[in-house]
Amino acid sequence: ESVCVGVRVRPFNDREIGLKAQVCIDMDGPTTSIFKVEDPDAKPTTFTFDESFWSHDGFEDDNGYSKPVPGSKYADQTYVFNTFGTRVLDNAWAGYHCCLFAYGQTGAGKSYSMVGYGKNKGIVPISCEEIFERIKNNGNPNLRFEVVISVVEIYNEVVQDLLVVPETRPKKGLDIRESKLLGIYIDKVAKRPVDSYPAIEQAIEEATEHRTVGSTLMNATSSRAHTVTCIEFKQVNNEDGREAT
Question: Which residues lie below 8 Å from residue 12, measured CB to CB, with a gap of 6+?
């Protein structure tokens, strides 16, 4: 599958509520419409994506999870994963390199969609759970799986390993190299073997604590860096005593 693009609109934050901001966006299926609040009669500008996720309102709390109110168009974390996350996972399972990229200004909700908070798990942790669920359901005795995780951040054009405590990291960061065998890779990045979703969750939580964060006018807990979570998944097939990945 080729590139797929989706957009998501979040609820107002405290700053926007304090400024009495008005909604100027509407979504219907894959279509996003932007209209002028100062001129309600003006024709809206419309854009069509693979999916437009309305997450601004229409939800209620269910023991810490934000779920849609019956009859609303609210796109919860599960819906977002089922729409885009399963595509990434299915292609990875088929042996393809996959990338899920979240883009937007600070405070747009990238971390929430990708990682989530509390019971509102994002695409990355849900995908990790699904990987090990599929491994558990494997019925081929000649097939085994290897999973490792690495997490880095790019801040001020320096790549840092988030699985290493800041005090022991090299000041110049890690080098990005390229080889004919491996392609583009991060030299000397820590790769942690994991055999369950809780092990991945622990690694992500550890990496999150090591992120570069700081307050901005738009977001009090901005990550201040680009975070990249890499999950390497290998299927090793044993045929006549020979292993092939």
Answer: 21, 56
CA distance 23 to 144: 50
Please give the single-letter amino acid code of residue 175: D
- Rg for the chain (alpha carbons), in Å? 21
Residue 94, both tokens: 């088929």
How far apart CA 150 and CA 138 sit, in angstroms, is: 25
Whole-prediction pTM value? 0.79
Whole-number Å distance between alpha carbons of 92 and 232 = 9
Contacts of 236 (CB under 8 A, 6+ apart): 143, 144, 145, 146, 243, 244, 245
pLDDT of 221 above 60: no
Amino acid at 225: A
CB neighbour list of residue 233: distance below 8 Å, 6 or more residues apart: 92, 93, 131, 145, 146, 147
Return the residue matching tokens 């998944």. 233
Q: What are phi and psi of 10, to 5 degrees?
A: -100, 170
Average pLDDT score over residue span 75-90: 94
Q: What is the mean pLDDT of residues 134-158?
A: 90
Distance CA 121, CA 100 (A): 16
Residue where the block lists tokens 């926007």: 16
Q: Which residues on neighbouring strands pair with residue 179, listed in sequence order?
A: 183
CA-CA-CA-CA dihedral for 17, 20, 24, 27, to nearest 10 = 30
